[in-house]
């Protein structure tokens, strides 16, 4: 009951929402609570968030194979782009949801540089815009939410340079809507400078 009241109060105080959110979770997080991914998507949809991304940190994406059917159910309420190993699949309609399993920001940047070189681009013409056009993930989150006590990964290392970071003191398996709303309230209270 008290959480319901707190949730209503937090909702009433929200006026400025991020357009794009990225949740960074671990392999163990998704194994412990794979259903929370769909739950978080529902919360974002209800609030009118433009798009949401989930990065699942793992050294071996194959260990998460058993979670894929549950992750794919997101396509019933949103447009899901799933990056798994070297594969990418798109299904569903609606709000944009991206799930990236085991992807690395350093690998993405190295791949960009490699493809630029393979395309024979003149080094003098390489600038931020050109590099960004070669990125796999053209997603610049306004807010990055990291659950639990694990460290932040290098995922979206280029794209998240001006993102606001929020470290939840709650593990993914215990995530409640009030925790998510607390992150949004914190985002709303920040003065974004975009590196200036």
TrEMBL record:
Keyword Transferase among record annotations: yes
UniProt record, GO biological process: polyprenol biosynthetic process
InterPro entries: UPP_synth-like, UPP_synth-like_sf
MF terms (GO), sorted A to Z: ditrans,polycis-undecaprenyl-diphosphate synthase [(2E,6E)-farnesyl-diphosphate specific] activity
Lineage: Archaea, Methanobacteriati, Methanobacteriota, Stenosarchaea group, Methanomicrobia
Protein name: Undecaprenyl pyrophosphate synthetase
Enzyme class: transferase
Alphabetically ordered keywords of this record: Transferase
Enzyme Commission number: 2.5.1.31
């Amino acid at each position: 009951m008290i959480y319901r009241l707190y949730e209503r109060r937090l909702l009433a105080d929200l006026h400025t929402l991020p357009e794009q959110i990225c949740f960074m979770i671990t392999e163990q997080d998704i194994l412990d609570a794979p259903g929370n991914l769909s739950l978080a998507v529902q919360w974002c949809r209800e609030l009118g968030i433009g798009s949401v991304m989930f990065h699942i940190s793992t050294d071996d994406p194959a260990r998460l194979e058993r979670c894929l059917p549950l992750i794919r159910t997101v396509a019933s309420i949103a447009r899901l782009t799933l990056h798994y190993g070297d594969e990418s699949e798109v299904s569903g309609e609606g709000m944009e949801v991206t799930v990236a399993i085991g992807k690395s920001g350093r690998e993405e940047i190295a791949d960009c540089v490699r493809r630029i070189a393979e395309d024979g681009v003149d080094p003098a013409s390489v600038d931020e815009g050109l590099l960004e056009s070669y990125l796999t993930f053209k997603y610049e989150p306004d807010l990055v939410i990291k659950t639990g006590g694990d460290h932040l990964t290098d995922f979206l290392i280029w794209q998240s340079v001006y993102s606001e970071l929020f470290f939840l003191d709650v593990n993914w398996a215990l995530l409640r809507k009030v925790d998510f709303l607390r992150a949004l309230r914190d985002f709303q209270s920040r003065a974004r400078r975009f590196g200036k």
